[in-house]
Amino acid sequence: MSEHPSPRFSRRASDQSPRTYADKSSKKALRTAIRATLRVESPAVRHNTQTFNRGRYAAVAALPDYEELKDRARAIKEDAIARLPELVETLGESVRRNGGNFYLARDAADAARYVTEVCKRARVRLAVKGKSMTSEEIRLNHALEAAGIEVAETDLAEFILQVADEQPSHVIAPAVHYSRERISALFKRKFRTDEPLETGEELTAFARKMLRRKFLAADAGITGANFVIADSGSVVLVESEANIRMTTAMPPLHIAISGAEKILPTRADVAPFIELLAASATGQLMSSYTSILRPPLMDVPVLTDGDAAPRRDFHLVILDNGRSAMRDDPVLSEALYCIRCSACLNSCANFQTVGGHAFGGETYSGGIGGAWEAGTRGLGHARFSELCTGCSRCVNQCPVRIDVPGLNTELRRRLNPGEATMASRGLAALIASDGDAREEASLEKLFFGRYDIFGRWGARFAGIANRAGESKLARKIMERVFGVDQRRAMPKFASPTFVEAAAKRTRGVRSKRGDATGKVVVFADVFTNYGSPARGLATLRVLEAAGADVIVSPVSADGRAALSQGLVETARRQAQRTADLLERYIGQGREIAVVEPSVLAMFRMEFRELLDGEGMRGRFEKIRSHCFDPCEYLVTLFSRHQLNPQDFFPANDQPRGTQVMLHSHCQQRTIGAAAAVEGLLRLCGFDVETSNVECCGMAGSFGYKKEYYDLSMAVGRQLFEQVQSAESSGGSRTLVASGTSCQEQLHVGLERRVLHPMELLAETIEEIEGRARRSAPKYRARFS
C-alpha cells in the first residue's frame, strides 16, 4: 500500500493560518476536516479505536468492583479539585523538600518559556521526551526548537508523528490514524532505507534502534504525568513501552509538566485510578509499566563519558492555562475530573470514524476535548464539539462519571448567541409570539431545536409541507437557510397526528375493562406525534391486547430537540411543563410508556439537571421510576401476573416470519432498556439477531445537517454491512429498531421498511384477528 499523506494536520499548521483544520472554529473548516479524514484516515482510526473499545469491555467486566471504583475515583477528584489551591501549595513544598524545583505556570507561553530557560541554563542540546498532551497544549517542541534545542519524541506513536510532522489524533494513541502500511511507506520515504519494514516487529525495531542513540546522547528528559501526589511530591507515570522510564532515568535533567487538575492529595488516592486507567484506556488490567517516582532520582547513576557524573536536577511545572477559570465554572469544572483515559473517544461512533483530526482541536479531541479546548484556548476553538451527538454511549464508560454530552450541550449553548443573525432573531421573536420565551440561536439550530413548533404547523398543513419536502427548489432553499442536506430524504408530517388518530380510534372501538392488568398512559412525544404515529398506535394496540387500561397523553415537547441544539433554557421550560403533565398521570396511579428511546432517556437522565424548583430531586426520581419503554412495561406486566407473552404475541403468527434483526438505540442501551426489547421478542418466540454495531450514525437531527451528512452515512455503513452479512448467511430478516433516527437511517441505507418493536407485535395481533374474521362471520360482524 502506498503512503497517503494526512491532509494538512501539521503540528505547525496553526502558525501558518488562522483557519486550519486543527483550528475548527468555522463550519467550513470542520466540514473540510471531516471529508479529508474520511478519505484518508478513517479505516485505521475505526480499526484501532474499536480494538481498544472491545478490550475495554472485557477488562472492566473483569473488575468485580468496577462501579465502586468509579464512585471512589469520582469522589477523590471532586475533593482534589475543590481543594486545588491548597494542594498546589502543598505540592510545591514537597517538591522543594525533596531537592527539586517547582514552578506554577500561569499560561501556555509562561510554561514553555520556563522549560526553555531551564534547558538553556543547563546547556541542553538534545532533549528526549515522553508522550505528553500537556506539552502539546503549551507547544513545547516549537519553543525548544526555536531555541536551537533538538527534541526527540520517544513514544513510538509520537515518533511516527514527529517524522510525519503531524499533530496527535488521539489522547493515548497519537498515531491511531496510521495503518502499518502507511507507517512503512513513511519511514522508507523519510529515512531512505531499504529495510523491509513490513511487520509491526520490524517497524518497532527500526524505531528502537534510532531512539536508543537519542537516549544515550540526551542532556534532558521531559515527561508529562498521569498523576502528581501533593504530600510526597511524587509523579505517577503509566505507559506501555518503558520509554518514559528511560526518559526519567538516563539524562541528568528531568522536567515533568502537568496540568494542575492531575494533583491528588496522597499516594493512597492513586489506587482506584491505577485499576481504572489501564482498563478504560487500552483494555489491560494493568499497564505494562507503572512508575511512582519521587524525583530527583539521586540514587540512580547518570551515564556519562566523563570521570564525574553530573548532578541530577528535577523541575516540576504545574500548568494553570485556564484551569482556575474552569474550576470556577459551574459546568466546565467537571472536565477537570478527566484522567485522559480516552474511553469517551473510543466508545464514540463519530470519533471511531474520523478520529481527532476532525473530532478535535489543536490539543484535545473527542467528546471531552471540546470542554478542554474551550477552557485552555477559548470557546471559539470548541466548534468541533458539535460532532458530539449526545448519544450518551460514553456516559457509562467514563471511569470518573463525567457527563460528556452535558458538557457539549453547554458548549453549544454558549456558542449559540454568537451565531444569531437578523433572520434568526426574527424567527426567535416569532417563536416567542407563539407563546414561548425567546432564545436566540442560528436559523439551523432554531429549525431543528423547535421541532415541536415546526411539527405542529407541518402536520396542520401536511399536504403542502410534504410536497415541499420533495421539491428540488424547496430543498435547495432549506439547505441554504436551515442547513438540511439535499441528499437526505425528509420525513413526512403526519395527518392525522398520533394524538388525533388515537382519539378517533378510542371513540370507535375501545371498550371498558374491569379486569385491567395495569394502568398506563402512552406519552405522546413530538417525534411520534408529528412524524411516526403508526408506532404510537401500535403501542396503544399492543398494551390493550396485553390487558392494560391505556390512555394517550396530549402531545408535549420534553426538551430533547431543544437540548440537542444547545437551547438549554427552552429545554428547561419544556421539561418543566412535561414533568407537570407526567406527575398528574403518576398521581392517578398510571405508569408512563414512552415510545421514543431518546425521550425516555430525557426522563431518566437529563431531567435530573433540567428540573428546578423546590423538591426537584424528588420530582426527578418519581418520574424516572415511573417511566418505561413499552417492552420494559410489558415484561414487568407479564412477570407480575405470571403470563406467557407467547400466548399474546406468538411469533409463529407474525406474517413477516420469526427472523428478526434488532438494532437498539444508543440511549436505550445507556439507560438499560435495550435488554427488555430483545428479551420480550425472544419470549414471544422470535429468532433475534442483535446488531453489535452500537450506533447507526443518524443521531436525530445530526444526519440531516449538511456539515455532517457524509459522516452520518459513513458511521451507518458498518451497520448496513452487518445486516447484509447476516442475511447473506441466514436469510432475510425483519428489521426492527426502536428509535426514530435509527429507523430512518436503516430505511435510507437498506431501502427497506423498518419496524418499531410495537409495530412488529401489533402486526402479529392483526394477523391473528384477521384469520378470526375470515373464519367466523359473527366475529367479522363485530369488527365491521
Describe the structure.
By secondary structure, the chain is of the alpha/beta class. 53% of the residues lie in helices and 10% in strands. The chain contains 38 helices and 17 strands. It has a 6-stranded parallel β-sheet, with helices on both faces. Strands 8-5-6-9 form a 4-stranded mixed β-sheet. Helix 24 packs parallel to helix 26, helix 26 packs across helix 37 and helix 31 packs across helix 34. The protein starts with 12 loop residues before the first helix and ends with a helix.
What's the structural blueprint in terms of helices and strands?
Blueprint: H1 13-16, H2 27-40, H3 42-61, H4 66-82, H5 84-97, E1 101-105, H6 108-121, E2 126-129, H7 133-137, H8 140-146, E3 150-153, H9 156-164, H10 180-191, H11 200-217, E4 220-223, E5 227-229, E6 234-239, H12 243-249, E7 253-259, E8 263-264, H13 271-281, E9 289-293, E10 313-319, H14 323-328, H15 343-346, H16 349-354, H17 366-376, H18 404-419, H19 422-433, H20 443-449, H21 451-460, H22 462-470, H23 472-482, H24 498-509, E11 518-524, H25 526-531, H26 533-545, E12 548-555, H27 560-564, H28 568-587, E13 591-594, H29 597-610, H30 616-626, E14 627-628, H31 630-640, H32 645-648, E15 659-663, H33 666-670, H34 674-683, E16 687-690, H35 709-730, E17 734-737, H36 740-750, H37 757-775, H38 777-782
Helix pairs in contact: 3-13, 4-13, 17-18, 21-22, 24-26, 26-37, 28-30, 29-30, 31-34, 35-36
Largest sheet: 6 strands, parallel
Q: How many helical elements?
A: 38
Number of strands: 17
Structural class: alpha/beta
